[in-house]
Amino acid sequence: MTRVLNVVTNVGQYVGTDHPTGLWLSELTHAWQVFEARGFEQTLVSPAGGAVPIEPRSLKFPSYDRSAKAWHADPARMALLEQTASPDEIDAADFDAIYFTGGHGVMFDFPDSEGLQRITRELFERGAVVGAVCHGYCGLLNTRLSDGSYLVAGRRLTGFAWQEEVLARVDKLVPYNAEQVVKERGADYEKARLPFASYAVTDRNLVTGQNPGSAKETAEAVAGLL
């Protein structure tokens, strides 16, 4: 059985403000569908474990599509977001891939989660697939390998672009410029010509997608490697 660990946020608002945020639902649901269709077993984990808030803007058109609506209307699916595992409960040896979802909440709780870093490092170093979509790459920013180097150093990748933050009118709310930080970590950052266009990058066992519209493409690339 191929097993995928989906990572989601516990943060429901931009820290220091009253602006809500959370999981960008379609970034989870599109990937879940791709993995489910292939018979993969899936688990949800979050930095603190427990409940996962949903970004209100992800419940509006166009992100609130058939996939997201179906999940949101299904009590059993929604219950999965109330009882996610914590990193301490996860043995990386049990999984074949990790997939970091996005939403601006992840900018606050993904980067410094030592538990997520441990899982990601162990998976990556044994050649398992590490995937991230949109802001999910914030979960890779501070992850170091056993030799002390950054996981993203020297790797081609993508993720939510600063231009997209500006266009989404949240550039004054986000705690840092993720695109700039990942470049400072030594990554070879790429992005699509047009903002919000689907774009995914595969560099060996690292798969990343740029924005919410890239979730399906990113998940299919992860599945392809698996």
Describe it.
The chain has 226 residues and is α/β, with parallel strands linked by helices. The chain has one domain (3-225): Class I glutamine amidotransferase (GATase) domain (Rossmann fold), CATH 3.40.50.880. 29% of the residues lie in helices and 14% in strands. The chain is built from eight helices and eight strands, in the order βαβααβααββααβββα. It has helices spanning 25-37, 66-72, 75-80, 106-109, 114-125, 162-167, 178-184, 215-225; strands at 3-7, 41-45, 97-100, 129-133, 156-157, 188-189, 200-203, 206-209. It has a six-stranded mixed beta sheet. Strands 5-6 form a two-stranded parallel ribbon. α1 (25-37) links the parallel β1 (3-7) and β2 (41-45). α1 (25-37) packs parallel to α8 (215-225). It is globular, with a radius of gyration of 16 Å. The mean pLDDT is 98.
